[in-house]
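Z., the sequence and structure:
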Amino acid sequence: QVQPVESGGGLVQAGGSLRLSCAESGSIFRIISMGWYRQAPWKQRELVATITSGGSINYADSVKGRFTISRDNAKKTMNLQMNSLKPEDTAVYYCNERRIGSREYWGQGTQVTVSS
């Protein structure tokens, strides 16, 4: 199954840092954008950050100044550096790919838990 693969989740204390990585799915279709989304228990999935193939970046207001999204085209990975983590950042984080032809792929998710 064509799917991006996340890694790097875990348990961290409030104020700490984590770095998430996403390995691209390997689909042959050109990437339009990639992004990170998260879903906390009993809440809807929400956007965290996105980056287009041209390098345009968008962040949710709740993570601006704390999270940094980046891509490594040579390694075909996308990263999310998360600093100053808060308990409310606790969620399953999903990698998303949008490719030409309205193709969209989701990873299986990685758990991030921030303890107070």
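The chain has no helices and eleven strands. The mean pLDDT is 96.

Let me know what you think.
H.
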